[in-house]
Amino acid sequence: METKGHDQVFFVNFGMVMAVLFGIFFVCIIAARWLDRGDEHDEPGAKARLEARIAPVGQVVTDPSVLVKMAAQTQTSRPAMTGEQVYSKVCTGCHAAGVLGAPKVGDKAAWSERLKAQDGVDGLLKKAESGLNAMPPRGGDASLSDDELKGAIEYMLKQTGL
């Protein structure tokens, strides 16, 4: 019989605690409604500034062919570079030292083998456009035109003696 009295006391106390918590809950809701009076008092342009702050900063593109197209679209016009300029700017880092299997400028055997395997300069140009082994497409400079790439290939072949 004593447990029945204890249970009744517990339920009464629990009910009072819940009533107080619900009261606090409703007071918080009313206070929040009162503090946030809606959009009628917003200053002009606040929404536009908010949209500008939360706008995406950029986009992620992982497809190399799309990257080449995007770079070509955003490229500022510049005078075309010669084969020697392209070689100095882009190609020399790997082809001067033979990094990661890149044929060194001056290595006739390696360049002759590549020329035969790719069916000449046009085949080498196609591989340079799409990338080969560790070489990224267009040697890593998507702004290079086909003529500039071809000029660089012909320059390296000329320096090799082919």
Report on the architecture of this protein.
This protein is mainly alpha-helical and 162 residues long. It has helices spanning 2-35, 46-54, 64-74, 83-95, 108-117, 121-130, 146-160. Helix 4 packs across helix 7 (146-160) and helix 6 crosses helix 7 (146-160). The model has no long low-confidence stretch (mean pLDDT 84).
Please describe the biggest sheet, giving its number of strands, its sense, and whether it closes into a barrel: none
Average pLDDT confidence is 84
Name the structural class.
mainly alpha
What general form does the structure show? elongated
Note the main attributes of this structure.
mainly alpha, elongated, 162 residues
Quick structural overview:
The chain is mainly α and 162 residues long. It has seven helices and no strands.
Please render the helix and strand layout as text:
Elements: H1 2-35, H2 46-54, H3 64-74, H4 83-95, H5 108-117, H6 121-130, H7 146-160
